[in-house]
Amino acid sequence: MPFAWNQRQNIYGIIFLLPRGNRLECMKKTQLLAILNLVALLVHVTLSYFTQFKLINDLDIGQVADTFGSLFTPADITFAIWGVIYTALLFFCIYHIRMAFNQASTHPANQNVNRVGGWFIINNIIAAAWLLVWTRGMIFLSTGLIVFQLVTVVIINLRLRIHDPFARVDSKIFTQFPLSIYFGWLTIATIANISILLIASGWDGFGFDYTPIEWTRITIGIAVFLAVSIVFARRNVLFGLVVVWALYGIVLKRASVNPGLYSELIKTAWAGMAIVAVSSIIQFILNISSKGELRAISGNPSSLK
Fold it and tell me: At what angle do helices 108-116 and 81-102 cross, to 10 degrees?
């Protein structure tokens, strides 16, 4: 039976359910999901550049952040990672479109598209909304949006079992790499957004007489704890490396402002970088060891590719 819409079929069914029915119908649903992923990403990226060039609102993302003086906000150069993330996610979308139109529904890439469902689409829609809200200075609403955005990335990573050291090489390059670095940076961005929300709301620190520097050191500790937990629990080395980059951005920012005043904060960030970096190296070795053991047991090196 050729693929056709009927009154009971709707976008919700395509987004949240795995394809059902005959192979042709399943493939067309997979192809549609892959295309919608790309469209949603392009909307997100386009709006991001529009906001940076102030084509929508008077302030760009960094200028809004600077108005609150959060000590957790990294140096501007750190945000260059968005170029890497956007490029990687673009390759993620293009790769899966190619697989959807050239491979069977049983191909791992197409199965991944179906596992993700519409969560990637939702993620990019939320990201676009966050850009509009943030650049208008609506901090409370932006915090809710970025938390929801992070939740969608967590769901995607769980559904795709990222990071899987035994996955195919193409899956690691075009699926696991983009979604891992996106997950890592979005986690840091969420913490930064919450930090700014606390400042904007006049938070009193739960009554504790801590200085902004001390609270930021605690926040760095939370970020380090999350990073180490995810590196080991999810075997995700890339997540750890992104957090190292973010902490380095904090060092650069504080050192450029007043290295003497922020010396303790800078030391905390360096210590956090070391902890996360060592954890990532250990997990990287464990990933290689696990893969080597599986190869030895299977006796078929090509099965891991």
Answer: 120
- Tokens read off for 192: 């930064």
Q: d(Cα 165, Cα 62) in Å, to the nearest integer?
A: 36
Q: pTM for the full model?
A: 0.89
Pick from 7, 41, 38, 34: which is nearest to 19 by CA? 34
Give the separation between CA 165 and CA 304, rounded to whole angstroms: 9
Contact between 243 and 182 under an 8 Å Cβ cutoff? The reply is no
- State the Cα angle at 139 between 238 and 189, rounded to 5°: 5
Q: Any residues with CB less than 8 A from the CB of 216 and at least 6 apart, and which? A: 70, 71, 72, 195, 265
Q: pLDDT, tens digit, for every residue of 95-107?
A: 999 999 999 989 9
158-171 pLDDT tens trace: 999 999 989 999 99
Q: Determine the Cα–Cα distance for residues 18 and 231; give it in Å rounded to an integer.
A: 29
The size of the chain, in residues, is 305
Cis peptide before 163 (omega within 30 of 0): yes
